[in-house]
Amino acid sequence: MKISKFVLATLAFLKMFSMSSSVNLNEILKMVPKDYILQKISMSTAQNIHNTGETKIDSLETFNYGTLISSIIKIAYASATGSFKYLGSESESLHQYFLSEDNNSETSLRSLLIFDSFDVCRESIEILIILFMLSPNHLKQVINEEQSQHFFIDLLLNCHENSIRLTMLEQFTLIITKCIKNEEFVNNCIKLLFKHLKTTVPKFFHQSRPFFQFFCNLLNYAFHDNIQIATLFELISYEVNLLKNARVSRGNLLHCIDLNC
After folding, report:
1. Of 90, 178, 235, 242, which residue is 20 to 30 A from 58 by alpha carbon distance?
2. DSSP label of 259
3. What pLDDT shows up at residue 208?
4. What is the distance between the alpha carbons of residues 151 and 141, in angstroms, rounded to a whole number?
5. Distance (Å, whole) CA 86 – CA 109
6. Under 8 Å CB-to-CB from 121, ≥6 apart: which residues?
7. Rounded to an integer, what distance in angstroms lies between the CA atom of residue 150 and that of residue 73?
8. What is the pLDDT of residues 37-68, one digit of tens each?
9. How big is the CA angle at 187 (ends 124 and 94), to the nearest 5 degrees?
10. Which is nearest to 76 in space by CA: 89, 59, 63?
11. The pTM is what?
């Protein structure tokens, strides 16, 4: 994973140097925030390649990112369970796992290898972000396609491991608010979050802070960039109804906790 991240980070820096992209170089450095040495080496390597004058940037545009992204998503999805035994599982099986009680109850039974699995997941997420920067259109597919949506929500909200949810929050906030300038895409993200705010969040409310923070980050980004939110009135109406029925909602929530829902 470290080698893959180094190669892709080098390509990202090379693309920056070669194409004079408008994306700020410091924002790219933040995409691998826990690997300062890797950042410096990747940037230095890319600069040296660029200085030779032999850079073939066109090859980066024709590279098949889709297959690589699908593979990294599978690794991240499976390793987020805390066990490498799920590496061969289908996406739907993984989705059902994260919706089940096993997502929380199995943790105490696992060995120390669980931490290795979570490390792999976090590394995979950071690699994904670099790939999305190199090929933004594939990020749009993650938000628009149902199976990819499951992956996104499961790791941002349903996964019991807090460090993974935080990594999703930090990395996807970065790529969406700093590297993707598309009003339709932002609206699709907000629409997806709003859908799960009404359906999935009530079940996983106890670990929903990264989800809400990500939602707030997108709304704040939309406000400052004057992006018209298509579902604004629906969202406001839903929040108003929650406030009107706060006492009832609180009673239902406490009842649910008593029943260990």
Report:
1. 178
2. T
3. 94
4. 12
5. 16
6. 75, 76, 79, 80, 155, 161, 164, 167
7. 11
8. 777 777 788 778 777 766 555 555 666 788 88
9. 35
10. 89
11. 0.80
Question: How many other C-beta atoms can be found within 10 angstroms of the C-beta atom of residue 142?
Answer: 18
164-118-93 Cα angle (round to 5): 85
List, for the chain, all residue ranges whose pLDDT scores fall below the cut of 70: 18-34, 36, 53-63, 101-115, 246-261
* Helix, strand, coil in percent for the chain, rounding step 5: 75, 0, 25
> Quick one: tokens of 66?
């889709």
Planar angle of CA 225, 227, 232, nearest 5 degrees: 135
Concatenated DSSP letters for 92-126? HHHHHHHHSTHHHHTGGGS-THHHHHHHHHHHHHH
Q: What is the pLDDT of residue 221?
A: 93
Q: Could you give the residue ranges of the DSSP H alpha helices within 100-205?
A: 102-105, 113-134, 136-144, 146-153, 162-174, 183-199
Please classify residue 103 by burial: count the beta carbons closer than 10 Å to its beta carbon, then call 0-12 exposed, 13-18 middle and 19+ buried.
buried
Let me know if 2 is exposed, middle or buried by CB neighbors in 10 A (0-12, 13-18, 19+).
exposed
For residue 137, give both structure tokens: 């259109």
The CB density around residue 76, as the number of other CB atoms within 10 Å, is: 23
How far apart are alpha carbons 140 and 51 in whole angstroms?
A: 33
């700093």: which residue's tokens? 178
Q: Rounded CA gap, 99 and 95, in Å?
A: 6
What was the pLDDT predicted at 59? 56
The span from the CA of 158 to the CA of 156, in Å, is: 6
